[in-house]
Design goal:
Layout (H helix, E strand, L loop, with lengths): L1 E5 L6 H10 L3 E6 L6 H6 L2 E4 L8 H5 L4 E4 L11 H18 L4 E7 L9 H15 L3 E7 L5 H11 L3 E5 L10 H11 L8 E5 L7 H12 L4 E5 L1 H11 L6 H7 L2 H4 L10 H7 L9 H31 L3 H14 L1
Parallel strand pairs: 1-2, 1-4, 2-3, 4-5, 5-6, 6-8, 7-9
Length: 336
Amino acid sequence: MTLLIVGATGTLGRQVARRAIDEGYKVRCLVRSTKKAAFLKEWGAELVSGDLCYPETLPRALEGVTAVIDAATSRPTDSLSIKQVDWDGKVALIQAVKAAGIDRFIFFSILEAEKYPEVPLMEIKRCTELYLAESGLNYTILRLAGFMQGLIGQYGIPILENQPVWVSGVSSPVAYMDTQDIAKFAIRALNVPETEKQAFPLVGTRAWSAEEIINLCERLSGKEARITRMPINLLRTVRRVIKFFQWGWNVADRLAFTEVLASGQPLNASMTEVYQIFGLEQEQTTTLESYLQEYFSRIMKKLKELDYQKSKTKKQRSKKTPFKKVNSQESIGNGQ
């Protein structure tokens, strides 16, 4: 079976590619830059240049493909808007997959997207789900809550570097999941008939509020967080202002997601039936405690090694040899 993975250089996409390769699939990745995707080639994937926003580049990438896994999404720094990538691009991809006669399609959506029509990305995900369901393709939709990987930059690094940790509004508990576990479900779906033409929640073992995550990071790092609370009304004002500028469209659309994270409503779902259908064990799913424990253990060990090396270097520089002292004294004597 040959898989085409779209968005393979992203946080989730690279784990999907890694998992597929490890399980023996022939993997092809649609990439905008082969240079930035060189690590995928080193893993054993085939790289094909293309872009969702340029539909003419898709047919070549789909030749000989058995199934497509779509892990692509726009980024705040992209020059293209969320609509261009996550709607126009996805519609073009679905149409190209159907035209190529490919039956299997795995799509990543967002949990409870239908409840937040005012959040652009969530509304687009909801519409894409409907479009995919009406396409006639044999799809599986996996609805995610959040990635554990994102918490490192949001909480872990700022706490270690004594930088402010930003918290907005009433924190909504989120059931974050490790992208490696998400990838495991995505690849498993390809061989489980019960997942065909179905949508499933895909979340971590429990939901965590921002305060709980900060407390966990403080305990694991031994450092105290500098918490800065950002009023939700201020974020709304900032969003409205930057939306007037084209460069701020993606940032503004992403800021809208804070409405979800500050709503106080948990982003979580029961996974009991999902584990049964996919034939996977919940005990094997990474917990947030173990994920952050591993991160801080590695970082704290590295910091200790760096401190030791700096201390050792400093001592070597400050230490003078007897030979240098003798030469110094002789010079003084000769000078006299």
